Amino acid sequence: MPTGVALRDARQQLFAAAERLLLRAGPAALTSRSVTTEAGVAKGVLHRHFSDFDDFLAEFVLDAVSRMDPRVAGLPSAAGTGTVAANLTAALTALFESVAVALVPLVIARDELRARLREPWPAGVPVLTDAARLIGGYLDAEQQLGRLAATADTQTLAAMLIGTCHLQYTGNDHTPPPADDVSRVVSSVLSGAVPR
User: Fold this and answer.
1) Mind giving me the DSSP string for the chain?
2) How confident is the model at residue 156 (pLDDT cuts 50, 70, 90)?
3) Structure confidence by residue, pLDDT tens digits, 42-66
4) Can you give the residue ranges of the HTH tetR-type domain (predicted)?
5) What angle do CA 107, 111, 112 make, to 5 degrees?
6) Which residues lie below 8 Å from residue 103, measured CB to CB, with a gap of 6+?
7) I want to staple 100 with a disulfide (CB 3.0 to 4.6 A). Which of 23, 86, 127, 187 is the partner?
8) Domain spans of the chain?
9) Dist CA 75 CA 184 (whole Å)
10) Which architecture does CATH list for 7-49?
11) pLDDT digits (tens, 9 = 90+) for 87-143
């Protein structure tokens, strides 16, 4: 790697390489050597910008959270447009076709990584926890607009949507489920909560 490359560029290059490796080969494939090789940089570049590999992984996970797909991040502002089911189906599909599914086993597999993430993220798994919060906020907004039953427990519905879709996306050998399956899950979870 040429000298004088900006810190942010090196970080993003390493994060992009880690994401490709994670999606292609899973969390066991992530090592400092494999990431730097995938990024096409010297191994020392990673250690120049991060105190150790778990520091790199924690920053990688937090970067993935900050880059959440706009269809998920913007979900609360979609309240009152389209249908509740269609909005949720689009957001959940975007979420689970991103790196989110691959981050879960990475975080679970590494004790030191989980410990480091507990400081900025005291509960749950980053990305999925944030997505559940955004979906809950969206459902709250729809409830206030009368498009969701006043008795609906929006936070439980959000958790059910995340959990059920996560199971669908992790059970197919990296093959996303058909769009109709995600739509059917959303409709089932919302049944009784969406006024007819």
Assistant:
1) --TT--HHHHHHHHHHHHHHHHHHH-GGG--HHHHHHHHTS-HHHHHHHSSSHHHHHHHHHHHHHHT--HHHHTGGGGTTSS-HHHHHHHHHHHHHTTTHHHHHHHHHH-HHHHHHHHTT--SS-TTHHHHHHHHHHHHHHHHHTTSS-TT--HHHHHHHHHHHHHHHHHSSTTPPPPHHHHHHHHHHHHTTTS--
2) very high
3) 988 999 999 999 999 999 988 887 7
4) 8-68
5) 100
6) 22, 61, 64, 125, 126, 127
7) 127
8) 7-49, 64-190
9) 19
10) Orthogonal Bundle (1.10)
11) 999 999 888 877 777 888 888 888 888 888 877 665 667 677 888 888 999 999 999
The two tokens of residue 57 are 């992984």
